[in-house]
Amino acid sequence: MLFLERNVYFSKKISALKIKYGIIVVMCLLSICCHAQDGFLILNQDERIDALIGKQREIHAKDSTIDGFRVQIFMESGNDAVQHAEKVKEDFAGQYPSVPVYLSFGQPYYRLRAGDFRTRLEAEKFYYEIKNIYRNAFVTGDRINLPYNVLCGNKDEMINFDEGKVSGEDNNIVIPDDIYYEE
To answer: CA torsion 62→68→74→76, rounded to 10°?
Structure first.
């Protein structure tokens, strides 16, 4: 009797193993046949989305600034403030030609602010670089110019998603597969 029970136990165990291995083999065969990516994207979208994108572009065309940070390097009031600000601006542009400098007037002071930094950390890094030259400098929040498209290598090379191929009456847009994110 014990022998029979043992055979039934082993036969159930063997059949369970056969089922498990069978499932594994089937999954492996199915994974070989699957294709994960074809290299293109077909985008079916409502026409209202295009209208919203158009409105967003109009808004950004009118106001191309975002909240960010700048380093204020000069602040002065008085009759000679504009001339002093222009001289400091020229000196700064000579030392840091890649950093934009902005002259603004907020009554009664003329201010020179440098950089278009998206984070306070970036602004403080630049501040520590110039603090020995411009002793009154400090980091301040400001509206900054939009940076160039971060998907691109330089400012002149912008990606235009409107150049996607349009096919059919239902506005299928095929975006080329050579557009990728680069950091």
So the answer is: 60
- Rg over CA atoms, the chain: 32
The closest of 38, 36, 43 to 177, measured between CA atoms, is 38
74 with 50, same domain?
A: no
Q: What is the number of structural domains in the chain? A: 3
Local structure of residue 162 (DSSP, 8 states): G
pLDDT at res. 121: 94
Domain with 104 in it: what CATH number? 3.30.70.1070
What number of residues does the chain have?
A: 183
Quickly tell me which residue has 């940070």 as its tokens: 69
Smallest Cα–Cα separation from 74: which of 107, 96, 103, 97?
103
In this prediction, the residues of the chain whose per-residue pLDDT falls under 70 are 1-14, 33-39, 147-183
